[in-house]
């Protein structure tokens, strides 16, 4: 399985706070961005760096900078926006490509309402962000749009993942690694993750 469950103590602590039924919109938002930043740190461990020399306080110093492929962050609207600032806090110059999807609550399939990708996506690592990987329909639809546009190195950052969603993404796109704060137990009859976080979009936007 191409999935990494990041069991860092800070992530486990923050996710525990996010699972409280009575959490405020403010707290949920803050924690979603913080966990997103921690997942970004893990998902970018293998970025290439190159050495160069700078004029330091005591003379020439050899330092390093990121080299090679650049990054585009791909939030899946709307809940993915709740992770964007956390990712950009670590990669401030990343370009943002936006995919608008809404899960049809009857069929659980994803309907696309927006696709606005950076032009040179074939030269960038794509970091998809969405708090929830449930059936996997939204993630698979997004990966297919990105691949059609030329993206080759695609990674997914999700706060919580259901085994069913991981299985679906892995079956269709085994090259895409999923970084998650938690692999939860299962989906319920309505396609919600158990124990999960409830409706992440509503919690981030305060709509319910
Ligand atoms: C949620 C979530 C994912 C999707 C996951 O979005 O943010 O995008 O559902 O479900 P899936 O794995 O079964 O496709 P939703 O469609 O509720 O829209 P929202 O972000 O606008 O709240
Ligand atoms: N979307 C959510 O917001 N939560 C779930 O548990 C499943 C899909």
From TrEMBL:
Pfam families registered for this protein in UniProt: UPRTase (PF14681)
Keyword Nucleotide-binding annotated: yes
Cofactor: Mg(2+)
SUPFAM superfamilies xref list: PRTase-like
Protein EC: 2.4.2.9
GO molecular function list: GTP binding; magnesium ion binding; uracil phosphoribosyltransferase activity
Catalysed conversion reaction: UMP + diphosphate = 5-phospho-alpha-D-ribose 1-diphosphate + uracil
Residue ranges annotated for the Phosphoribosyltransferase domain, each copy included: 7-207
Gene3D superfamilies linked to this entry: 3.40.50.2020
A Gene Ontology BP annotation from the UniProt entry: uracil salvage
GO cellular component, as recorded: cytoplasm
Signal sequence range: none
Transmembrane segments annotated in the record for this chain: none
This protein's UniProt keywords: Allosteric enzyme, Glycosyltransferase, GTP-binding, Magnesium, Nucleotide-binding, Transferase
Domain of life of the source: Bacteria
Annotated 5-phospho-alpha-D-ribose 1-diphosphate binding sites: 78, 103, 130-138, 199
Binding note for cofactor: Binds 1 Mg(2+) ion per subunit. The magnesium is bound as Mg-PRPP.
Role description: Catalyzes the conversion of uracil and 5-phospho-alpha-D-ribose 1-diphosphate (PRPP) to UMP and diphosphate.
Family, per entry: Belongs to the UPRTase family.
PANTHER family associated with the record: ADENINE PHOSPHORIBOSYLTRANSFERASE, URACIL PHOSPHORIBOSYLTRANSFERASE, CHLOROPLASTIC
Protein name as annotated: Uracil phosphoribosyltransferase
Recorded name of the encoding gene: upp
